[in-house]
Amino acid sequence: MKSLKLYLVLTLVVLALLVAACGGGGGSEPAAPSGGDSGGSEPVTSPVDPATAGTITGRVLFTGVAPEPEAILMDAEPTCQALYPDGAFAETVVVNDNGTLRNVFIYVKAGLGDVQFPTPGEGVVLDQKGCRYIPHVFGMQAGQDLVIRNSDDVLHNIHPVPTVNDSFNVGQPVKDMETTKTFEEPEVMIPIACDVHEWMSGYAGVLSHPYYAVSGEDGSFTLSNVPPGTYTVEAWHEVYGAQTMEVTVSEKGAAEIEFTFTGG
Q1: 3-state secondary structure of 2
Q2: Model's pTM, two decimal places?
Q3: What is residue 13's three-state secondary structure?
Q4: Quick check: 247 and 48 in contact, CB under 8 A?
Q5: pLDDT of amino acid 31
Q6: Contact at 8 Å (CB) between 233 and 247?
Q7: What is the overall mean pLDDT for the chain?
Q8: Are the CB atoms for 53 and 90 separated by under 8 Å?
Q9: pLDDT digits (tens, 9 = 90+) for 79-96
Q10: CA-to-CA distance for 219 and 11, rounded, in angstroms?
């Protein structure tokens, strides 16, 4: 009889522990995680409201005397030299036919505060084609993949020289070879060199946000989906340095600005 009572007591204790482990029998579901700093919250795709966002557009003008195009001697690499029957020229200073300047990096330097932007899932491609870095100047976000490709049937190597991020030096001896790297911290600008071909050069602008552009063949640029606010926008060129300008973007507004660089 004592054994039976002891058995019943132990059974009741076990049942009570099981009920407590399952939530106390109250029938309520576990609380959903709040959206704050909880590790279980889903990352937002963008902190910007597209219903109120605007744009910043503009041009980079050039005045003064443009330097003569700098010829590149590719005698050491006949495979690449053959691709330029009229000669190859450096992209250091490229003045467009409409009086604008190419390869200027334009970006929002200040004004976004502590707004955090998600890292793009798609990588940025830096190609080595015709013994050049293509593009010569480009932007990306910190933590985003940099896909480095060798489209030439010659040996290349990629050697960024950052001051904030970690450097690397990667060789690519095979055509169509790809290597993926990242820069984890914002840094404007990171020079990129090739230790095999001294004329190959490029620059990467690494930011914590997506508001950047590079002036092209018509010298224009566009920064889209910019939240309303007042910003400092900088235009950087590898020879002529950097200029800044303050611009205000209203709700659904379109702000226009122009930078002017002067040659010697």
Answers
A1: helix
A2: 0.82
A3: helix
A4: no
A5: 32
A6: yes
A7: 86
A8: no
A9: 999 999 999 999 999 999
A10: 82
Region of 87 please: left (phi>0), alpha (psi -120 to 50) or beta: left
DSSP summary character for residue 142: T
Each residue's pLDDT tens digit, 166-221: 999 999 999 999 999 999 999 999 999 999 999 999 999 999 999 999 999 999 99
Which contiguous run of DSSP H or E holds residue 11? Answer: helix 2-21
Token code pair at residue 203:
């620059």
**Which tokens sit at 8?**
């019943």
Name the 3-class secondary structure at 143.
coil
What Rg do the C-alpha atoms of the chain give, in angstroms?
Answer: 28
Query: Could you tell me the two tokens for 107?
Result: 């970006």
Query: How many degrees, rounded to 5, is the angle at CA 185 between CA 155 and CA 211?
Result: 95
* SS3 assignment for 139-165: EEECCCEEEEEECCCCCEEEEECCCCC
Separation between Cα atoms, residue 1 and residue 243, nearest integer Å: 94
